[in-house]
Amino acid sequence: MAAAADSLEPVALPADWEQSLFRIAGEALFNTAVHADAHRAVVRLAYHCDQIRLTISDDGVGSPDAVRRSLRAASATPSGEHRGLVNMQTRARDLGGSLT
Predict the structure, then answer these.
(1) In angstroms, rounded to a whole number, what is the distance separating the alpha carbons of residues 43 and 74?
(2) Which one of 8, 36, 59, 100 has the fewest CB atoms closer than 10 angstroms to its CB?
């Protein structure tokens, strides 16, 4: 089966999926506002033939490697720190997806 190009047409989603995607985006934007020293953030929701991709990017100063280390540490030893990252990861997994 050939891969379809991204669709620009919104797709009706179950309410729990909409809520989870909204919460993930909100947490990512909160992190951008508080930690990234960014001037701009971009949120994209792309509909593929068999998946939905939510992408949040910014022009901030954060290091993707540092975020990955923080996520690994917070997942291994749950504490009050970096719970937002763990919550985003949990929500994505609950939808059958992943957080990268």
Answers:
(1) 25
(2) 8
Alpha-carbon distance of 40 to 22, in angstroms, equals 19
Structure confidence by residue, pLDDT tens digits, 39-95: 999 999 998 878 899 999 999 998 888 888 888 888 887 666 668 888 999 999 999
Structure-token match 């379809």, residue found: 4
The one-letter code for the residue type at 48 is H
Helix (H) or strand (E) holding 55: strand 52-58
What does the block give as tokens for 8? 């620009």
The answer to whether 6 touches 48, Cβ cutoff 8 Å, is yes
Residue length, the chain? 100
- Is 87 in contact with 72 (CB distance < 8 Å)? no
Contact 82, 70 (CB under 8 A): yes
Question: 25, 42, 37, 40: which is closest to 84 by C-alpha?
Answer: 25
Q: Residue 27, CB half-sphere, CA atoms under 13 Å: how many? A: 19
